[in-house]
Amino acid sequence: MRLRVNITGVVQGVGFRPFVYRLARELGLKGFVLNNELGVSIEAEGEKEKLIELLRRLQEEKPPAAAIYSITSQFLEEAGYKEFEIRKSERSGEVKVSVLPDLATCRDCLRELFDENDRRYLYPFINCTNCGPRFTIILSLPYDRENTTMREFKMCPECRREYEDPTDRRFHAQPNACPVCGPHVWLVDERGERVAERDGALELLARWIREGKIVAVKGLGGFHLVCDATNGEAVRELRLRKRREEKPFAVMFKDLEQVKEFAEVSPLEEVALTRVEAPIVILKSKGKLPREISPDTETVGAFLPYTPLHHILLRRVERPIVATSCNITDEPIMKDNREVEKELGRLIDGALLHNREIARRCDDSVVRIIGGKIVPLRRSRGYAPLPVLLPFPLKGPVLALGPHMKNTVALGKENRVYLSQHVGDVDNLKAEEFLKETVKDLINLLEIEPEVVVCDYHPGYFTTKWGKEEFAEKLIQIYHHHAHAISVMAENGVEVGEKVIALTYDGTGYGKDGTIWGGEILTASYTEFERELSLLPFPLPGGEKAVKEPYRVAVSLLKLSGIEPEKVLGKRREVEFVSQMVDKGINCPITSSMGRLFDGVSAILGLKERVSYQAQGAVVLEEAALKSSTAKSLPLSIEGDRFDWREAIREIVRLKEGGIPVEEIARRFHNWVVELSVMGAEFVREKKGIETLALSGGVFQNRLLTETLTKTLEERGFKILTHQVVPPNDGGISLGQAVYGGLVEKGS
User: Fold this and answer.
1) 300, 334, 354: which is the final residue of a domain?
2) Angle between helices 646-657 and 662-688 (to 10 degrees)
């Protein structure tokens, strides 16, 4: 395979390229290393295991003077390199990164943190030029201390000496501080009374967590809600208070050894866990944590401490902790002391506060290994606001307002698109304000004034309404699934003018015909697309209500398949009521959504009739399918340019009535989706002569589906493009929007 790696940081002029050269030659890899405008670019070919080892050793064995601020990696098809070489940079080599992401605590600082003889022993804000806060403390450019939230703290003589010494690793480390001159922590109880400060506060906090209390802990981009992850009762109580019924909680572990005690960790998952971005990594659980952590799945979202405060706390608690965003479900993460203090005695039993202001909210990032690749599911802390590099320049500066769900916004200029941190679902007033705040902040911070602004076509989205109000003269619109296709094309370096076959499978997207799309096979370039094939449309009884109550989708699918819903779902009033809605066409928007089809099948099989979080029905359907290894499928047919699912639904009901295990039926359904996708791709290839196929949309977070489909398509000779830089879900939409806005002529 070929591995492409882009590294930002202090990696030019410090012996980094010779280090990569020696390492690659030692591992028997072929390819090249060169300086680029963000740092260093590497392409290496060889055995997959050797490439994973390269990724690990790049961080562990880098030259002493080097500092890695971020690593993005993509596994690609072989290019046929003959040897490994240091190539001359095509550009000047000037690094153009002006705003960097927050960095996990480095090894040097960690060693000092737990050294009793060091002046920063157990100081929760220890950092250096190689680690610590960046994006969440900067107020404006240039990145100098007076332009950060550290401006309130005057450096003591010792810190000042380090800061001004070019040979010291804290030379020009803007957050540089110590217990004498820097920020400090304190602990408040449920009445808001200060009960401990500094090290005593962390000691008491650890005791509270062990006792089963739920506390808020101030981090880099906001507060975490924290409790003992091994205490099922505490986790249940946290669910009640946060109003988060079943969606999995992330768990922070003391170190890699503790992660391996509770979860299975592959070599690539270990690389993901220990990267400087320190994302949450979805792992297979060993079943030792309470079921309340992740009620629907056999996975755990695991991550390691990424601030000194976390390291101290985890060592004192000695158990894994739940560390989830401090908010009421669907609202933005809380970042200010006063926001959290209002929740004392209700949401939380106490809070660890500190006096370093957080400049902007920034949630934790989430990744999952899919098909042997690190795939982002949420790109935020540790990544934002690093740009995605394009293989071509944009015509002018462009702002993308993003989608409605899993929103990010983006700013594009020249050959770079800067993505914001995760904003989330824009469906309440606080989220709308956060979106506006993020747009304004990104424009001011990067000092890019957009000439074009891009939004979705959906008339009901806040981003569409606000775009038309705020940016009317600059505004252009793009269809949701075209933006999905462009996002995966852009991150994979597809050239302008080239076309791909795009499988865009998700839950909701406004289509050209005014219906809800989501099960689409398109042919697409950066500036235009055609709908080639799609799922046979079906009514969505209650519209958005059907998203939260998949039994409604099941009623629709059953009725259109000629089956009485009551025979499958039971004779009850709500089923009869929804059935009448479908008959009369009352409040039944039409959809071709693959995500809703997954939901409906999940409900038909009795797995999930109502959901408490987005795509829960599909999640439990995949979990069931993973327990079967059958290669059997369901009846497949194409009617014109539509995939007809009706006979498949009839077969699902027959199999269920015949006593076939739900797990096998779920697996057959996944196999059926693979088969229809391959059939569709081959149909379009024959029709249009296109060999490159791109996968995008939230459905491709499904590991079983994506891995099986990718393998099958590659066997049929397709070149497959998947996401490894931005999420396949709507979190990557803003990249597609920005590229479109930077290439298309306004008014075309």
Assistant:
1) 354
2) 160
Domain that holds residue 223: 185-354
pLDDT along the chain (748 residues), means of 10: 90 82 95 87 95 94 82 92 87 58 94 98 95 94 90 97 90 94 98 97 98 97 98 97 94 98 98 95 98 96 98 97 92 96 95 98 98 97 92 96 97 96 95 97 94 97 97 97 98 96 97 97 98 98 95 98 96 95 95 98 97 95 98 94 97 98 98 98 97 98 98 97 98 98 82
* Claim to verify: residue 543 and residue 681 sit in the same structural domain: yes
Burial of 730 (0-12, 13-18, 19+ CB in 10 A): buried
Q: What is the pTM of this model?
A: 0.94
Separation between Cα atoms, residue 231 and residue 243, nearest integer Å: 18
Alpha carbon dihedral 586, 591, 593, 595, in 10-degree steps, equals: -10
Tokens of 151: 């401006």
Specify whether 237 is located in the same domain as 204: yes
Q: Is the peptide bond before 385 cis (omega within 30 degrees of 0)?
A: yes
CA distances from 617 to 214, 290, 424 (A): 29, 22, 20
The verdict on 340 and 426 lying in the same domain is no
Torsion of CA 206, 302, 266, 617, to 10 degrees: 150
CA 640, 646, 648, 650 dihedral sign is negative
Angle at 598 between CA 592 and CA 604, to 5 degrees: 110
Q: Are residues 419 and 566 in the same domain?
A: no
| Res 134: pLDDT | 93
Contacts of residue 746, Cβ cutoff 8 Å, sequence gap at least 6: 452, 476
**Nearest Cα to Cα of residue 509 among 500, 517, 501:** 517
CB 695 within 8 A of CB 503: yes
Give the closest residue to 436 by CA, choosing from 459, 420, 452: 420
335 neighbors 284 (Cβ within 8 angstroms)? no
Angle, CA 441 vertex, CA 725 and CA 93 arms, to 5°: 50
Q: What is the DSSP string of 457-469?
A: S-TT-HHHHHHHH
Tokens, residue 696? 């995008």
Q: Hey, CA dihedral for 243, 247, 250, 251, is it positive or negative? A: positive
Strand partners, 223: 218
pLDDT in the model for residue 64: 75
Concatenated DSSP letters of 12-46: SSSSHHHHHHHHHHHTT-EEEEEE-SSEEEEEEES
Token pair, residue 46, equals 């060889």
Q: How many CA atoms lie within 13 A of 694 on its CB side?
A: 30
Instruction: Give helix then strand counts, H and E, for the chain.
Output: 23, 32
